[in-house]
Amino acid sequence: MTTLPESPGDESGGGVPASPFGAVALAAYQPDEPLFARQLRSIQAQTHKEFVCLISVDGDYQRVADMVRRACGDDSRFQVLGYEDRLGFHHNFERALKAVPAEATWVALSDQDDYWYPEKLATLLPRLGQAALVTGQARVVPPQVSAAGGDSSSGTLTDRKIVAPADLLANNQVTGSLCVFRRDVLDLALPFPSMAAPSQYHDHWIGLCSLVRGGMHIENLVLQDYIQHGGNVVGESRQSLPTSVRNTLRFVQRYEGSTSPRSISSIIHKTGLGWRTLMARTLLERAEKSGLPVGQELRQALNLYARPSRWQLVRSLVGGVRRGNVSPVRALEISLGIILPNFPPGGREAEHRS
């Protein structure tokens, strides 16, 4: 376990340990069995043992259930949720989270092919007394390096940090597989808002919800290996402008059903500004309906995206880039959403925020 320098504005404190029982929500889709088994065993080997691991299978349930049985034996904590239909990773995580038992007081998210260090849960859970969501850091390595073990500080390390709400809306700092959060975050987060766009990420949404429920804390310790390989849904590498353009063109057909100029304009808008506007409006509505207070800085950030004004938003994005909290490519994607026509929800899935 490697300690990293504290992030600016990241305050540490004693905190009150969360109630011990919780849930690990794991979304599985056609997992590679050796990587999947290694991850399951790393969860099984956690020094904090009071949890249930809910494995939501996005199709091909029996194959995954057999893998879990081979890896975990008769450990009743590991439960495979039987679904044959495919929803995609965003809604597959949602499905797992909807199954979290009422008595669970905390939730951790897990990818199917990472590797947790034994003390991960025991290190993060006590911090939930001071924040609604706590995230650690990870070593980003290919499978063969992770399997070889070695110094956890070697290789590329994640650099999650506390940023202002507007910068968090623009550039996500929450990687689901690195974090734990309090159960009450789910009351606000479920059901997930949905938009037919590649930018809809469950962890970005959960991170924003945690700001209403008590904020975030970064624990600057390397607590797991984040495995990088060709099958990653979301990787850790920084995206260049040419790569961003190629990905946009690839996603147009998938999400919009055509490659017309209207479809290209629509997917660029949704990927940059549209998804963030949907999250902001949904969170404001749910907080108001639940009677939850929203701090002034967070409310200003949510309003900035819920009812975007061109110059105010551009000014915020430029500030985020200068502070090093928002990548120039992300700022450009969001800015294009202001310029391009905002077509009504369509494509293969209409937006909803129920």
Keywords:
354 residues
* Helix content estimate: 40-55%
Described by strand count, sense and barrel closure, the largest sheet is: 10 strands, mixed
What distance separates the N and C termini? 41 Å
Q: In DSSP terms, counting alpha (H) and pi (I) runs of 4 or more, how many helices?
A: 13
Q: What's the gyration radius in Å?
A: 20 Å
Averaging pLDDT over every residue, what do you get? 87
Order of helices and strands: EEHEHEHEEHEHEHEHHEHHHHH
Strand content: 15-25%
- Which spans have pLDDT < 50 for at least 5 consecutive residues? 5-18, 232-237, 345-350
Morphology: globular
Write a concise synopsis of the structure shown:
Helix 10 runs antiparallel to helix 11, helix 10 packs across helix 13 (328-339) and helix 12 (310-322) runs antiparallel to helix 13 (328-339). The chain is of the alpha/beta class. It has helices spanning 33-44, 61-72, 89-98, 120-124, 143-148, 165-170, 184-189, 202-213, 241-256, 261-290, 296-306, 310-322, 328-339, and strands at 2-3, 22-28, 51-57, 78-81, 106-110, 115-116, 133-141, 156-157, 179-182, 216-227.
Describe this structure in words.
The protein is α/β, with parallel strands linked by helices and about 350 residues long. About 45% of the residues lie in helices and about 15% in strands. The protein contains 13 helices and 10 strands. Strands 1, 2, 3, 4, 5, 6, 7, 8, 9 and 10 form a 10-stranded mixed beta sheet that branches. Helix 9 packs across helix 10 and helix 12 packs antiparallel against helix 13. It is globular. The N and C termini lie far apart (about 40 Å). About 5% of the residues have low confidence.
